[in-house]
Amino acid sequence: MKRSEHKNKEKTEETSSKRGFFYYFDISYRVIKTLVVLFFVTLLIGGSLGTGAAIGYFASLVDDSEIPEYSEMESQIDDFVIKSTMYYAGGEVISDVRSDLIRTSIDLDQMSPYVKDAIIATEDEYFYEHNGIVPKAVARALVQDLTNSASSSGGSTLTQQLIKQQLVGSEVSHSRKANEILLAMRLENALSKDDILQSYLNISPFGRNNKGQNIAGVQEAALGIFGIPASDLTLPQAAFIAGLPQSPISYSPYTQTGDLKEDQTYGLRRLNEVLFRMLREGYITEDEYNEALNYDVTGDFIEREASDGDDTSYVYDLAIKESTKILAQEFIKQDEVSAETLASDEDLRDEYNDRAESALRNGGYKVYTTIDRDVHQAVEQVVAEQVDTLGSERTYTYVDSDDVTQTATMPIQVSGSLIDNATGKVLSFIGGRDYDSSVFNRAFEADRSPGSIIKPLATFGPALDIGLITPATIIPDTPVTFPIQGSEDYEPTNAGPITNRWMTAREALTISQNIPTLKIYNELKEQVNPVEYMNRMGIDEIPADAYSQNLSTAIGGVSSGPAPVDLISAFSSIANNGAHVDPYVIEKIEDSSGEAIFQHQTEETQVWSPQTNYLLLDILRDVHTDGTARGTISQLNFDSDWISKTGTSGTSDKVDDIWYIGSTPRITFGTWIGYDNKVVGLIDEFGQSASLRNRNFWAKVVNRVYETKPELLGAGEQYAQPENIVQQSVLSQTGMLPGTVELPGGGTRSISGETFNEYFNTAHLPQTTTYDFAIGATDEELSEFWGSAGSNNTEDDINNSDEDEDPSPAPNTNETNESAPPEEAVPEPQEPESQEAPETTEPEQEVEPDPEPEENTEGEEPNEDTEETTVPEEPEEEPDNSDEENGGTAPPEDSDEGEGETPEDPPSDEDSTDDNNSSDEPETE
């Protein structure tokens, strides 16, 4: 090779060596640069696409959600559960309404600064910096969710937690979380930070208090754990409370019964964590931290306390029941639901009832009742002191479903109410002997036979009103037979003997004779429907179409009747000038803002004219002076213008119900005693009849009420006599004016003689005596009275004779009562639909007490030495509150709201059938 060629070759190799390094470096650089550019371009495009996809996904999650207006959001945030409270008439607290959560809302400036700082340091250290969310916290939580990480660092701000609790709920889903984020950012634009913090501290759950109740809000937490308001919380106390919302039940110092937990480790460990975070965020100094760390906060926990209202449970239950009904009606009215729609849709009715119950528990309502606390407590105290004097615990046997004979006992029960005549306010009531033994409120829920309490309401009042009778009208207290279509004839008796005297209507009601009452009613029902009068008095349990023609209604011989409060309220109409006002318990209901959403409005219904009413009440004045309640009013420590009426019902072999109701011009108070299930009856005990024991108890209660609040009873007040009431003299024998009487055969008689003065309504003044002047007198009796009915042309003076007639009331005596059954025997056929009729199918009827208390033998049972009664079925433990007809079923199983055996009423001429002919009337004396 040539030298020149060799040099060129070396030069080419050298150049090639140098060119390869830079060349490849340059190429590599360009490629890497291109790749980097492509990577970032791809990343940018991918990120954009990913971001767009994420935004699109977020949008899809919230697409179906309605974005609320700011005002609506604010309203929803503030719509949290607040405890409702019930009050006595004087403003004293009955109890807070038991609820899933107990909460009291307060303003932020009423909270200790420590608790605000502790909550922020623990739950959301960037609270005052973010706009509702912390993006990095959200991203961290999202990554943990996508990677199914076992650990979770959270990501919710206080604003998000508030949204979750009040608006979107706690469902675990991306949709819920997306809505939470969106609404949290929107809420920050609607409310200030302090408003959000205040709502959070009022809403969040804080475990249980020392009563075992679930609590929410720092105020209830402070009161229920440390016994102080939230404004007085110290640093360690505030830190303890601030740690509770993360796991309220675990960290709470109390069990569900309100007892302190033996192990407080979890709560104290959480307390230390809160204190550390407060130190880390600069809310407290290291000295404060150490001092709080060494403080024994468990020494500040308050001891267990019984829930409010335990000693007034009858009042609590009644207030809950009545206010729930009112709220349901208010909601129905707001929604403009028609009565027809409501009546046909049971589910809708249940829905409104549930809504009302929930609102009452959680809506922060204030319920004001009519119950006078001092008076009610005084009444309950007398019940506690005297209930065992009303009657002994009775023992009875029954055969259970396995045909095994069992023995059980039943205590005496009592109920009653005190009502303001003019307004209908229930000032006090007696639900039973004591709440612990039975929560059944007999005053408002028991349907008991009213006995003779019904006589002035169903018979004498209507008869006076239409002018069928005057107080002077004569009615023979003589045997009578009422034909009953499709059944045996009805031959009623009195509680005591049949006197065979012709007595005035005044006397008949004063001594509560059954036969004269039935004779009046028998004629009354042909002219008016007496039940319509009772309906005006609020007694609507007795349907007019079923009972209007039933004779037993006249004397209270119905299987069941109105609740005691309704019967006592009906009687109060007489003390209110003949106008009835429905009894009520709820005066006013306010919502959480203090606005009255319900205010009771009193409405009167005129039952009969004031003139009719005055005549009736004037007769009822005689009941406690000359009649069946003689000696009762004399036990009182004050004087007033009292009217009263006794009542007794039962079957031929036992007494089931004893009543006494009395009224002043201001109030009406009545009591009932008996046994819940009528397997056993009332008997003479402690040397007294059941009626006398009840009346003595009534007097003790009235005296205690007078001692407690004397102005309530209207001592010394008198009933006002209305216009058009006059006194006039009438014949003692006929209750009418003397004069010439036309006889059936065409002759006449002149009658005159001894007279007496009586009150009359000028619309129904006494007329000249007529031949058939006596209500219910038979043709034979009238013929005997007037002499020969066929005489024509004679005019004889018929003078009153003491031998023939004694116009004064003849009280029952011990001797006569011994020969009479403890109640009248009314033939009672079994109802067609009842196939299991008891052997005795008599109605519950009046058994009036002896007007002389010391001689009263009312209620005496056939086997006085034993207190066992054999019955065919197992009794129920509590009244079943059933409204079904009970006639004909076995007594113990036949319990209707505290009742046992409820024999049917005698049929009317209209509704009797051949199917109810099988009445086995017991033989009566």
Poorly predicted spans: 50-63, 788-925
Rg on CA atoms, Å: 42 Å
Class derived from helix and strand content: alpha+beta
Shape: elongated
The helical percent reads 25-40%
Largest sheet: 5 strands, mixed
Q: Count the helices. How many? A: 28
- State mean pLDDT (0 to 100 scale): 79
Order of neighbouring strands in the sheet with most strands: 2-1-6-14-15
Calculate the terminal CA-CA distance, rounded to whole Å: 167 Å
Q: Approximately what portion of the residues adopt beta-strand conformation?
A: 5-15%
Could you tell me the number of beta strands?
Answer: 25
Write the SSE topology.
Elements: H1 3-62, H2 70-78, E1 85-87, E2 93-96, E3 102-103, H3 113-123, H4 135-146, H5 158-168, H6 174-190, H7 193-203, E4 205-208, E5 214-216, H8 218-226, H9 235-242, H10 248-251, H11 265-280, H12 286-293, H13 313-334, H14 339-344, H15 346-362, E6 366-369, H16 373-386, E7 394-399, E8 405-410, E9 413-420, E10 426-430, H17 442-445, H18 454-465, E11 474-476, E12 502-504, H19 505-510, H20 514-524, H21 530-536, H22 544-547, H23 564-572, E13 579-581, E14 586-590, E15 596-599, E16 604-606, H24 610-621, H25 623-626, E17 643-651, E18 654-663, E19 667-674, H26 690-708, E20 725-731, E21 739-742, E22 748-751, E23 755-761, H27 779-786, E24 797-798, H28 814-818, E25 870-871
Helix pairs in contact: 2-5, 2-6, 3-9, 3-11, 5-6, 5-7, 9-11, 11-12, 13-15, 16-26, 18-20, 18-21, 18-24
